[in-house]
Amino acid sequence: MRILHLTDTHLYGDPDARHYDRIDTAAALRGLLARLEGLADIDVVVHTGDASEDGSDASYRLLHEILDPFAASLGAPLVVVMGNHDVSAVYGQSIVPGQRLAERQDRVVDLAGGGRVVVLDSSVPGAGYGHLEAEQLDWLREVLSRPAAEGTVLAIHHPPLVGATELLRGLDLDGLDELAAVLAGSDVRIVLAGHYHHEMHGAIGGIPVHVAPGITNVVDPLAPGAFEQSLALSGASVVELGEGAPRIITAVHPSAGDTLGDAEVPVYRFSPEQVAQIVAAAGR
C-alpha cells in the first residue's frame, strides 16, 4: 500500500482571508500539489485534518474542488479526517456519503487492494485538544475485530504521541492508554496524524505513528529559547507499507501561499505567556 499523506490545509470560505494575516492557504495547497505532480502508484490520499480554518461549507467545497481532481489524476480515493478547526457536522451534511454520525466523522474506507483506512474524529467542538469517546473506542474495537486482507491504516487528526513543545502538549490527545489497548494486537499497520504541523514518529500499542508536516505552515519543534514558532513552509509524506517497517518519505518546500515570500521569517513566534493564553483558551 502506498499512501500520500497530507494534513493541515486550514482553508477559508473567504478567498481574501489569510492565515496569521500572511498565508494564502488555498495557494499553499495548490503549490504543494503542483510539486507532487508525477507521483505514481498511490493507492489512497489521506488528509489528516484541519482541512478548514473556519469550518465553513465553502471551505470544504474548496477543499474538494482542489483535491478531488488531484486524487482522481492519481487514480486514488481521497479520505479526509476532521481536526480541531473543522466542524464535523458541516462537513458531514453535504460532503461525506454514508457517515456513521453527522456530529462525528468516524468511518471505514475500503481500498481496492484489500486494505482499508479507518477514520477517527478526535475533534472537540470549540477546543484545540483531542478526545475519543468511549463509544468511539467501542466502535473501533468492533471494526478491528474483523481484520482486512491487506491490513488497516488508522487516520486521526490528533497524534497519539506526547507533543514536542509546551503548546502542542497542551493541545494533544486524551486517553492514549485506552486507545493503545484497542490497537494492540490488531491489523493496524500504521497510524497517520496531523495537528502538530511538523514531522514526527513514534508508536502506540506497538504500532508505528507518523505525523506529517503541515501544508499551511510547518512548526519548528526545536526553536531556540523559550519561544514557539512556525515557518512559511509546506510539506507532505508518502508512506509505503509492505514487508517489515513502514517506509516514509517526507518533503518540505517554501510555501507557495506566503504573501511575504520569506521562509526564514516566522509565520508566528509565541512567547511562553502567549502559549499559556492559547492553552487556557483551547486546552483542557
TrEMBL record:
<keyword id="KW-0479">Metal-binding</keyword>
<dbReference type="GO" id="GO:0046872">
    <property type="term" value="F:metal ion binding"/>
</dbReference>
<dbReference type="InterPro" id="IPR029052">
    <property type="entry name" value="Metallo-depent_PP-like"/>
</dbReference>
<dbReference type="InterPro" id="IPR050884">
    <property type="entry name" value="CNP_phosphodiesterase-III"/>
</dbReference>
<comment type="similarity">
    <text>Belongs to the cyclic nucleotide phosphodiesterase class-III family.</text>
</comment>
<dbReference type="GO" id="GO:0016787">
    <property type="term" value="F:hydrolase activity"/>
</dbReference>
<dbReference type="InterPro" id="IPR004843">
    <property type="entry name" value="Calcineurin-like_PHP"/>
</dbReference>
<keyword id="KW-0408">Iron</keyword>
<keyword id="KW-0378">Hydrolase</keyword>
<protein>
    <submittedName>
        <fullName>Phosphohydrolase</fullName>
    </submittedName>
</protein>
<dbReference type="Pfam" id="PF00149">
    <property type="entry name" value="Metallophos"/>
</dbReference>
<feature type="domain" description="Calcineurin-like phosphoesterase">
    <location>
        <begin position="1"/>
        <end position="198"/>
    </location>
</feature>
